[in-house]
Amino acid sequence: MDNCSIEKVLIAAREAARQLNLLDENKINEVLNAVADQTEADAGYILAENARDLAAMDKSNPKYDRLMLTEKRIADIASDIRKVATLPSPLGRILWETTRPNGMKITKVSVPFGVIGIIYEARPNVSFDVFSLCFKAGSACVLKGGSDAENSNKAIINTINKVLIKFGIDSNTVVLLPNDRHVTAELLTAVGFVDLIIPRGSKGLIDFVRDNAKVPVIETGAGICHAYFHSAGDLCKGRRIVFNGKTRRVSVCNAIDSLVIDRARLSDLAALCEPLAEKNVIVYADEPSYDALLGKYPEQLLMRADASSFGTEFLDYKISVKCVENMDEALAHISRYSSKHSEVIITEDASAAERFSKEVDAACVYTNVSTAFTDGGQFGFGAEIGISTQKLHARGPMALNEITSYKYLIHGDGQTRDDNSVQKCCL
């Protein structure tokens, strides 16, 4: 696809976005429910195309689980789309209003972004999530998926377009771009055609998008998450939280990558890590932690930590362990290595929990709760478009409200603004 062709695609997407403003909320919800129905009807087709992608990937690749679709995951995706249809429209909300002394009324209302570009890796579910949220929020979406999921993404967009065409809606409302680096570069620099870029994937992908984009970017995805087992932590809670946060799904961004433990509780480290052995989790332990685990954690799964063990998003059955003297040292360690995604403290000390909540700089800060809950669905938002780790515009799980902008509507009755300097000049 050459530059001219890409420009035509983006112009068509912008026109489709403009037409979306004419759809009422009931019609939007009807289309979303129809997409959910069609997704279930096309499950066999989508799974067959997904199997082609899976066959080309090594099962040991951490991305394999993210790439894989199953009947259960298809059913869950359809359910998520239906949930989005039940959510209140994020558009036309009055965010603020005032009437000025001269009678002029100013109203701040939520509006669509317009055209949102998404660049993502081997995550075909993102194609459904992005479409449903963008469509509900009145924006067209331009998708640039990874080559690993090419067949899956094509099948998904075909399914969505069946429904759009049936309802007489421009199929350019959702566009899947070809797998070409040149196309990525064009999307990142499509100023005037694309209003926002959201990358979803590895730290490398996110860094590349941020460093090369001229279109505004919201950073999402990369999660280097810590669990801090405080000196006043409950061992039973700690075991459950660390095990769930690490092993529920290792390939997702809210998985725990590092366990930080107070030296005063080193004697409990073996018990804390014991459940991890059931899933063959490799533990990279610093010197004090290694000594505490030696002979108490499977030898083949116990490694000595090095400089690369901390600040790494493993996306695998691996975890690092850092022993600290106190909370000051724990907070400093987390501050140094965190990606500002999700962090948790395990403690029964309310003052320690309060300090942790105030000082830790992350989108989601937990007390005695697994980081696995950092998810738009778990927060009650329906499907999510990603987890923002930055501070401008949106932070944390991004759903409908976070993918809208706003404008000011000003109403009056012939008011004009006096300008003394102009009047003097005219005199």
From TrEMBL:
CDD domains in alphabetical order: ALDH_F18-19_ProA-GPR
Record's catalysed reaction(s): L-glutamate 5-semialdehyde + phosphate + NADP(+) = L-glutamyl 5-phosphate + NADPH + H(+)
Matching InterPro entries: Ald_DH/histidinol_DH, Ald_DH_C, Ald_DH_N, G-glutamylP_reductase_CS, Glu-5-SA_DH, GPR_dom
Keywords: Amino-acid biosynthesis, Cytoplasm, NADP, Oxidoreductase, Proline biosynthesis
Pathway(s) this gene product operates in, as recorded in its UniProt entry: Amino-acid biosynthesis; L-proline biosynthesis; L-glutamate 5-semialdehyde from L-glutamate: step 2/2
GO CC terms, sorted: cytoplasm
EC supergroup of this enzyme: oxidoreductase
Compartments (UniProt record): Cytoplasm
GO MF assignments: glutamate-5-semialdehyde dehydrogenase activity; NADP binding
EC number(s) from the headed UniProt entry: 1.2.1.41
A GO biological process held by the record: L-proline biosynthetic process
Chain's role: Catalyzes the NADPH-dependent reduction of L-glutamate 5-phosphate into L-glutamate 5-semialdehyde and phosphate. The product spontaneously undergoes cyclization to form 1-pyrroline-5-carboxylate.
NCBIfam families: PRK00197.1 (NF001221), proA (TIGR00407)
Name of the protein this chain belongs to: Gamma-glutamyl phosphate reductase
Native source organism of the sequence: Candidatus Caccoplasma merdipullorum
